[in-house]
């Protein structure tokens, strides 16, 4: 049940209340939420605050607003519960991309090491093709972002452990969050950083195709470490 609240950060608490209501009432994709007016009345807050909370949830992909038709639970088919849950925390400022980079630093070096040890010709060819896409994209725009996601996903799939592939898919889904894109845009040295990452991808490819596990692990540590440093500059 919804209950009246009083706080200086209304929209954050309203977000909690709305998501709790969705759970309590077992609302699923496509189900309609109460009107802004009704939510505001039950919470004893302004409609402006409710609208702000709904907007944040929409930005995070958890709700959709149909002009003239109300607010609905988003269709999250194909999106894991991990991504949805982390997106919720991102929207409320409880975690940020620097935290995600820290997790990546913990698991991706080991993924790279295993990939180097287990990579077959198909995995090596896939990585080589992605590097060709990189050269065409010149490290800029959506083509780079897509290549980057596919490159890291291919390494996870080549690790030989399907659990890592699932985890990497969730991490990539998290990185597509609006807040992650915003952090990239805020980097004053974006082109310089991209060029560094592209060089690191080349080095990773070389270590993996040479089946040098420890070298691949070391390069991935440097790669994710540089990403983490960029996130810290923006969010810390």
Main attributes?
two-stranded antiparallel sheet; single chain; mainly alpha; 11 helices; Four Helix Bundle (Hemerythrin (Met), subunit A); Arc Repressor Mutant, subunit A; 236 residues
> Could you list the spans in which at least 5 consecutive residues all have pLDDT below 50?
none
CATH architecture term of the largest domain: Up-down Bundle
What is the CATH C-level name of the largest domain? Mainly Alpha
Q: Which band does the percent of strand residues land in?
A: under 5%
Query: CATH homologous superfamily name of the largest domain?
Result: GntR ligand-binding domain-like
Using the coordinates shown, work out and report the CATH topology of the largest domain: Four Helix Bundle (Hemerythrin (Met), subunit A)
Largest sheet: 2 strands, antiparallel
Query: Count the helices. How many?
Result: 11
Q: Write down the overall geometry.
A: elongated
- Helix/sheet category: mainly alpha
Distance between the termini: 36 Å
- The total domain count is 2
* SSE order, one letter for each helix or strand: HHHEEHHHHHHHH
Give a brief outline of the structure:
The protein is 72% helix and 3% strand. It is mainly α.
What does this structure look like?
The chain is mostly helical. It folds into two domains: about 10-75, Orthogonal Bundle (Arc Repressor Mutant, subunit A), CATH 1.10.10.10; about 80-235, GntR ligand-binding domain-like (Four Helix Bundle (Hemerythrin (Met), subunit A)), CATH 1.20.120. The chain has helices spanning about 10-25, 35-45, 45-60, 80-90, 95-120, 120-135, 140-155, 160-175, 180-185, 190-210, 215-235; strands spanning about 65, 70-75. The chain has a two-stranded antiparallel ribbon. β1 (about 65) and β2 (about 70-75) form a beta hairpin. α2 crosses α3, α4 (about 80-90) runs parallel beside α8 and α5 packs parallel to α10. The longest helix is centred in the C-terminal third of the chain and has 23 residues, at about 215-235. The chain is elongated and about 65 Å long. It starts with 9 loop residues before the first helix and ends with a helix. The mean pLDDT is about 80.
